[in-house]
Amino acid sequence: EVQLVESGGGLVKPGGSLRLSCAASGFTFSTYTMNWVRQAPGKGLEWVSSITSTSGDIFYADSVKGRFTISRDNAKNSLYLQMNSLRAEDTAVYYCARAAAGDYWGQGTLVTVSS
Amino acid sequence: EIVLTQSPGTLSLSPGERATLSCRASQSVSSSYLAWYQQKPGQAPRLLIYGASSRATDIPDRFSGSGSGTDFTLTISRLEPEDFAVYFCRQYGSSPRTFGQGTKVEIK
Is A45 on the interface with B (CB under 8 A)? Predict the structure, then answer.
């Protein structure tokens, strides 16, 4: 069974940093593109970042470029999102999702940026 | 950036009725890399359709996707009670990947 479990969310002050993790199981993690997608409270979905299977190609939304860094460790079946210089508008549930089309999603981890 | 515009914003229908949801792109979507998701309150999105018209695993055949280029449609042939939710389209053919703003299908 495919499972994606996010962790690392929490309350952080503006300008602070957080590192999100996504633990994958039930499939060959090293062969899939992975994504981070976020959803602000009561709002729609916003794609944040994608990374190909070997980390050869990485993409970011303009809203996070230069502040967020996506990475993965295929030996640990894990995906990461390092978030720096956080802003109030980064407050959202952050989901990891498998594959370019997003065929499996985790349940999300809430990031709240507030003073 | 490809902007996806979904219409209508809200669709009020009764169980058993047909639902037709539209997703229009500001530019052609590469290789029909267009997906549809369903989201219920408090839950993660669920993939329904990928490649514009291919149903994802375990998705009932009352859900179908069609279209190419800039115009795409999600059709639910006969609404079941569990189908009342918010539906999003997303293109994943070019960066930045983008989502539509969503269509809420509510019980009339």
Answer: yes
A16 contact B CB<8A: no
Residues of chain B contacting A107 with CB distance shorter than 8 Å? 43-44
Let me know: does A102 contact B45? Beta carbons within 8 Å: yes
For residue A114, give Cα distances in angstroms to A21, A63, A85: 21, 18, 12
Verify whether the Cβ–Cβ distance A101 to B46 is below 8 Å. Answer: no
pLDDT, tens digit (0-9, with 9 covering 90-100), for B52-78: 999 999 999 999 999 999 999 999 999
The residue among B6, B17, B4, B9 whose CA lies nearest residue B83 is B17
- State chain A's mean pLDDT as an integer: 97
CB-based contact, B100 to chain A, within 8 Å = yes
Ramachandran category for residue A84: left, alpha or beta (phi over 0 → left; psi -120 to 50 → alpha)? beta
With an 8 Å Cβ cutoff, are A102 and B98 in contact? no
